[in-house]
Automatic annotation (TrEMBL), chain A:
Species of the source: Postia placenta MAD-698-R-SB12
Upper lineage: Eukaryota, Fungi, Dikarya, Basidiomycota, Agaricomycotina
Subcellular location, record wording: Nucleus
Chief site of localization: nucleus
Domain ORC5 lid positions: 265-308
Annotated Basic residues bias: 446-459
Stated name of the protein: Origin recognition complex subunit 5
Domain of life from the UniProt record: Eukaryota
Keyword terms, alphabetized: DNA replication, Nucleus
UniProtKB/TrEMBL annotation, chain B:
GO molecular function: DNA replication origin binding
Pfam families to which the protein is assigned, alphabetical: ORC3_N (PF07034), WHD_ORC (PF18137)
Protein name in the entry: Uncharacterized protein
Alphabetically ordered keywords of this record: DNA replication, DNA-binding, Nucleus
Organism of provenance: Postia placenta MAD-698-R-SB12
Chief place of localization: nucleus
Family: Belongs to the ORC3 family.
CDD domains from the UniProt entry: Orc3
Subcellular location: Nucleus
Origin recognition complex subunit 3 N-terminal domain location: 50-339
GO BP: any one term: DNA replication initiation
KW Nucleus (keyword) present: yes
Region (Disordered): 598-617, 655-716
Biased composition (Acidic residues): 606-617, 690-716
Amino acid sequence: MASTSRAIGTTQLPGYETLASHLELLLTSHSPSFIYLYDPETPRIAASAVRSVLQTVSEQEPLVHLRYACSNAVACFTPRLFYDSVINALARWTPTWEDGCQNWPGTSADGQRWNESLDTFVHGLRDVYAQVQASVHGSSSQDRGQVKGKAKARVMQPEGDEAYRLVLVIERAERLRETMPDLVVPLTRLAELAQLDIVTIFISDVRWEDIRPSLGASPEPFYMDAPLISKQATLEMLESLYPTQNYVPGNIHQDTYDPALRPLYSHFLETLYSICSPFTHDPYELAYIAAARWPGFVKPLLMLQGRTSPRAHCNADGRKNSRQAGDLSDGEEELSEIVPPTEDTRIRLTRIFTPTFTAALEALYPRLTNAEHWARANMPDEAMLAALAAGLRPGIGGHVDGALGSGVDALPRLAKFVLVAAFLASTNPPKTDMRMFGRGRDERAKRRRRRGGGPRRPKAGSTGAGVKIPQHLLGPTAFPLDRLLAILGVLLEENDAEARPLAPQFTLPGEYTDMEISRLAVYGQIMELASMRLLLRASPDKLESTPTYKCGISYETALALAKDVGIMLNDLLWEVV
Amino acid sequence: MSAYAVAKETSDLDDPTKSCIYIAPGDELEEVALSGPYSPHDWRDLPDGYELRMQAYKEAWTQCLRHMQSIIQALHAPVAKEVVAQVKSAYMDTLPGLPYAELPAMLVFGGSSGLYSDIIQQLEVSVEVEDDCAADEAKSDITASDGAIMIHLYPGDFPNLTTAMKSIVTGFIDQSTDSGQNGMKRRPAASLATYDISVLDAWYRSLDKKPSLTIFLHDFEQFEPAVVQDVLHIPELPLVYILAMSSPPSPSFLHTTYPRSTLALLSIHKFSAPLNVELIDELVEKTFCDPNFEPAVMLGPGSLGFLADFVSRHTASVDATLTIIQLALMKHFTEPLTIFIESSTLGLRNERLAGQKLDQPESQPFRDVLTSRLARSTSNPDDVDEDAISLLRSVNAARDGFYRKLRTMRIGLSVMSIVRQAIETERENESSMLDTLIAALRGRANRDVRQLATALSKCNAQQLQIVLQKLQALYDGLQDSDARDAEMDAHVRVSGALTELADTDNASVDAEKSRDPLVARLAKDLGEWLFGYLEKHLIRLDDGPLWDIWYTGSAPFPAELINPAPRPALVSALAHPNEHAAAYARLLRMYIPQDKAETGSADQDVREDEGEDEDGLPDTALLFRRYAEAGRLVNVYDWFQSFAGALDGRRRRERRAAVTSSGNAHTHGVSGAVSNGKGKGRARAHIPMEVDEADEDAGRSEEEESELGEDEDEEAAEAWRIEVRVRFIRALHELDYLGVVKPTGRKADHVVRTLYDVVY
């Protein structure tokens, strides 16, 4: 629903014209029964392009009567879901709650079910086909004397030869291999199986070679490759997204999306594209960033024009998805008031905001925060407005508002020790533990190894094959729980003994620590950390075997934690990072 | 503790057709119904003291808990409100121009069950409110929020995609029972699958109102990422996700675990619950330092110290805090005198009746203790009246005195907290209110007070104004009239200073350099006043008469209950079973009623001094002793040999002892086979004659009891060998059950030790 109608390109998509025309040609003439559309970058956009082609073709119906169904291999994760959704879509049947979400009953009244197996599905397809024929036949015979009579006459098709075609579009087809592996081959040969004119289109960002069933069970598809979207096409696509509705959320200036600002928007997009395109081409991503930045970008301008009215106005028909062009009549009187900025203002504005584009990219591309929040947090402030008015160039830093302050620092003291111990256990080889942590009689003097490099570091120019990759580059290794506790004991004994409350009942050296590391709270802490995924459980969740873990924190985090509790982490690492 | 080989079950044991035999726990425990918990003070308790104290405890704890819960709720309220607001506006305030509709995901970090229930409650409340003013909302189409339907899902609901979708779909549909279509006819085969999102879609379309659909995922880290990822790809409905995260926000779990393609579908809103450490600090402050809330029992530095340590070291969780406070209270109420906490009526209608109760002979020990305690606290012991009524009166006086002191202390602490917050610097931020409270209770707050007074005397006018205004508000807000009277001087002083400050302000409006001499003088005076005032208010609570009724003092907290060390406890029990058994026997004796104790009295004579003597050890401990001396791998056969040798030796010695004291007809059955099977350590304690009986805890047969003759025939020897084997197997399995041995996958007849460094 909302997602489809709001997606890019309900009409012709810029950049996809050639693909669209080819597909249209294929679908209206003799089409191959299996088409594979490969789009490595933006399969979602490709899918919407295909959908729009199908929409137009099925509406025009010049030569062929087309029914189509779009399904998604993620959403249809069982054969039954797939059968249901396809048959219902082809039959243009919407299940309703009132009649118990019944599926399309078929042409016969006895209510067959099509979702039982592939066989019934094929029968369902044939039934749909028959229904399409019947309905078209019925309606066309009605139409003939009326409006369409002329068109029909021009096509000059004998009535019996009218072409009927079903089209099945499957997005994210690569997932079929996991969810419904048995269905891949039948789907590619659906036309053969059903003896109907059915076209199956797979859309995927994976090549057909990688998902092709073995032994040549599937026929070769007709390959189509999505084009790389050019800069011009991207910009056009983005421009088509300029909101035309009148409803604007409360915290954004009400004239932000005034049609008069459209030229400025194009310039804005161009700047945005030039800054962000080295990092991402995806029109969706660019549109996301643009949507977040635009309100802040135009705000100074609007403020300068004295449009400070805080907004309390919302139009009843300002639905978000009324995107169709020509819906501008409501904003007519406001349009006259907004003046597009002069060239000079525009350049100044752009120059001021340029650094914030990068900041927006950094925060929004990994989705550290959401667009709306970012837009709100990065509204230009008063000082900036003043600077703009005065023609100065203020320093503006679009701050990334990702971190919430309370990170791992807020963990309890013991948790920090456990994490540092886990990091050591994951990084140091087990054989070195005795040397790193073993404390003999005169241990402390011996323990200090020479600084600045691990003892195992190979000499330069030694045998190439024997060069060992440092452990911290290989990722954490798993360690058993006992080893973690033992290292934890050493760390606690050396760094925590003074901070503990007094316990006169422990007299032997190390007895107190021994007691501490076997307490319930330590085990509880380990479980807690594992549930936070700061420790990763490496063994299956069973009782019988020794539990093993991996460290889930980075060197930097471990270093910060160690510093916090007063451990010299680098002294305890076998290979100094 | 279970009684094996109870006579009546031997028939079952001999029945070869049964593969599984139920051995009932010894009926001994059932006889000794636990009438009440063990307490070392029982001898001086009132006859119904336990029940009365339980009652008093319940009241005290309920009062405290209710107060704390309201504080927690108040602290959580802002975050909960924020989350609810965001959930409600999730599909309204979207930014125009986004390329596609996003799925709102609210990440709540560090929340606790309290916060979640607040959120849920607020969501529900807001729904009701919206229902009420639906008419108002109808006019604005944009805010077409028709409430919210919420479902809760846990990691167990998401084992795979099908189940996950089914939980979501049916969860929502089942929630709306009022839609009235539950009785609709469905032909399962011919309609959509129950896990089809289209069902939810159809259901949603059929609704008159369009509520927002909220999905609350608890323990989000535990969900299988592959499943959640797919679930997030499917929806086409206005769903809102609330993700309860337990991981810290800064290496973000969501961002490290889920691919960008999934993240791009979400509109991520982050919320952080208040930090638990701060929350607990505030909780303690508002519970124990609030001048207007009087806790029935004041916790002392012993318990609060444990709390502070536990919170900073182990888990800063509100629930743990509540448990610790509750446990401290519970322990406090084991003291018989705490019956006087609320009133001196001893659960009766008035003091006259209570006095009569005290006069009864069974209350005598209690009364003696009370008298001596009162006598100790007065300078002249002769003053203490022997009359019961006047005893109770002095208790009343002591209670009033203590609470007055406590109130003074609390006011002093509040003043301290106010001043500190107002002139807080980064340096002082380190010590929390909890630490200050502990220091003050220990009588070690002098340095803090001095620092504070010095800091105050260096304040500028603005800070002074804030401090004084807050202090005035504090004094104005005192609810207790006695307290108001007591603090009248201070109140006047503060008001006076405030007007003085206002005057100086008026006099020197242009005083840019904030330290004009008048203010400086005022600040200095105030600093001195504060020092004296706090000195007077932060008094020791543990020197009045009977103070330990209302104050836990430096009594240690029973830390083992919160944070036990199971493995060392297990090892020490295995290594020194007799000490543990003796302690248990002592404990048991405390609550076995005298009349019932007779039958078991022989058993209870535990020899506590048989420590190193191997003969006294039960089988499991005997086996464990050999285990402790073995290497990493234990050869089971050698182990058995050693065990059998020890048993043989013991048997020989016992037979010899039996022979020397022969002639005595052994009369078994008095203390009975019924009771000898429990605790093996205890079962050892017998006069030599009965010793053989006690040895047989591994299920022996009746006829063997008679085999005590010197001429041991072949049959008896064979039976003994079998018995040794059985006892070994049982002991071995017990050790296995305790987890101290583990089978090695490689070497036959060997087991691996899991415990090393056992100290005897």
